[in-house]
Amino acid sequence: MKKILMTILLALPLVAFASGSEKACGTIDCDPFKPDLHDKESLQRGSKYFVNYCMGCHSLAFMRYERMADDLDIPHEVAQQNLNFSGGNVGDLMKIAAPIKEQKKWFGAAPPDLTLVARARGVEWLYTYLRNFYQDEKRPYGVNNRVFKDVGMPHAMLELQGMAVCAPGPVHAENGGIKRDPLTREEVLFDPQTGVALNPCGRLNIEKAGALNGDQFDQAVSDLVNFLAYAGEPSALKRQRMGVYALFFVSLFFVVAWLLNREYWKDVH
User: Fold this and answer.
1) Which of 204, 214, 229, 249 could form a disulfide with 35 if both were Cys (CB 3.0 to 4.6 A apart)?
2) b/e 206-236 (16+ beta carbons within 10 angstroms → b)
3) 21-234 maps to which CATH number?
4) CA dist 217 → 12, 47, 133, 224 (Å)
């Protein structure tokens, strides 16, 4: 028993270190992001960005307009007018009209449903991915992505962010070593003054400005990812509330059980 307890105590620092370490998103580190499902205004803005910039190709096949509107405090009339462009009913699933066969012809593969993408990929991955498109004339849609190299999709939020171009920056290293640049497979560059290794696409500069500045675009992506986190588990807040009630009941039952046990055994010597 003592050996088991010692093993657990020794493992705790390792678990804490692993949870605090940075995650890798392709050739760069993931940007920190934490969803806030209590922020209804952010979720409402995120739903707007999704239907306007994502839903042309991607569906939320397990979400209904009505459920979304009720959860996000959006009147059904407003949801129908501003979010449901399919012409269907408010109770319909959030599917798209484009046939899968046609999408395969257009894109080479059908764009995935995004209902569970936040749970499958992780919110930090999504947040970093959506902010790291850059100009690449060699790609079919003229853009590439530092998180998902040679991704087969256009930059859906290009008009908001503007066109970003690669600029030399720090190299993403693994295990403390410097490797060949994963984007170009060329030898890394070095700053002649500092000797710091540089990546030809280590950072992005906005060459042609979009409708939003940098902070505004980051907020827009944050709202969108926040909404996708909600879509992946719409009952998360309800589940958390039920968990609090369950813990309160267990605590109350423990007190009652302890008093009852003491009363049963008080005359036993």
Assistant:
1) 229
2) eeeebebeeeebbebbbbbbbbbbbbbebee
3) 1.10.760.10
4) 38, 15, 13, 11
Q: What kind and span of H or E run contains 43?
A: helix 40-53
- Each domain of the chain, given as residue ranges in start order, spans 21-234
pTM for this predicted structure: 0.75
For the chain, 269 residues long, the average pLDDT of each consecutive 10-residue run is: 52 45 75 94 97 93 94 95 90 89 81 93 95 94 93 92 86 44 51 61 88 94 97 86 86 89 80
- Rounded CA-CA distance 38/80 in Å is 23
Measure the CA–CA gap between 265 and 182, rounded to whole angstroms. Answer: 71
pLDDT in tens, 130-159: 999 999 999 989 999 999 999 888 999 999
How far, in Å, CA of 107 to CA of 232, rounded? 25
Neighbour tally for 183: CB within 10 Å: 19
